[in-house]
Amino acid sequence: MTTTASSAPTIDVHAHLLLPEVEEAVAGHPGLAEARALDARRNGPAALAVNGPMVGARVPKLTDAAVRLTAMDAQGVDIQLVSPSPSHYHYWAEPQLAEKVCRLANEGTAAHCAKAPDRLHGLGLVPLQHPDLAVGLLDHALDQGLSGVEISSHAPGHELSDPAYEAFWSRAEETGALVFLHPFGCSLDERLDQWYLSNTVGQPTENAVALSHLIFSGVLDRHPGLKLIAAHGGGYLPTHIGRSDHAWRARPDARGCEREPSSYLKQLYFDSLVHDPQVLRELLRAVGPERVLLGSDFPFDMGTDDPLGALRAADLPDTDFHSVRGGNAAALLNLV
């Protein structure tokens, strides 16, 4: 494994894409205005004032494959796993529009990656708000040559523990599709509308809640082969999993899963984007070095412009460093 990991390409599994065709499809729908109003309440005016110019300055990196490749070269990244910006989820959309959004996202991501197929792999979308459509649109994503799909932490009226998703989890496990868990928006709403708490606290909270639903509900018991990658290092859960284990031991109502919750972390994958070398080392301790993948959140401001530098700062053993740098992702993407 050491030789394979050290010779593997450097792979960033957390990189985003903007798809104008998706936004054109939803333009003018009343649900879009409502969703934007909710987003405004959640983020607050100060964050919105920063977000617009921040995204605007990054549009070339988010849309132009040549610009993306130049940036990857500067970072020392050989391969990106590209996923649509979570702003494209549009979980408010009714079934017909939701299917159109996902098909456009799948096809648009595949077309972007096709411009550099040796360096860009892609993920599509499924409409979590319509579980009955998820299997068909997962298949559509795979038919485009994508590696899997990206999902949020929940959809209106549906947690990831919802039995309505069983067919989706089964199909993802059967096909070996990757499922990238990347929250968009936090259900704590206006409590986080200052100081960009909507992201700094909201995102890791949503990750922890979503992963806890998957663990405690027994989804990971029923689908042990599921290949799920949690963005942002899985949020608060991996470094605070002891509290979950205690609840599982102490309370009968927390016994929805077969084993202690911490044991399921070794069935999941996590990106390295935790912004703290000590937390990254703790993440590897909690989940195992074979379960952490390099992630940058390219090219947004809450990511890192130097993912390899952030990884080096953790001062990991060489074997672990190269596993996270690319060995683990290469195996997951069937590149070795």
UniProtKB/TrEMBL annotation:
In Pfam terms, one family for this protein is: Amidohydro_2
Residue ranges spanning the membrane: these are none
Keyword annotations for this protein, in alphabetical order, are: Lyase
- Keyword Signal tagged: no
Q: Which SUPFAM superfamilies match?
A: Metallo-dependent hydrolases (SSF51556)
Q: What is this protein called?
A: Amidohydrolase family protein
Q: Where is the Amidohydrolase-related domain?
A: 11-335
UniProt cross-references to InterPro entries, sorted A to Z: ACMSD, Amidohydro-rel, Metal_Hydrolase
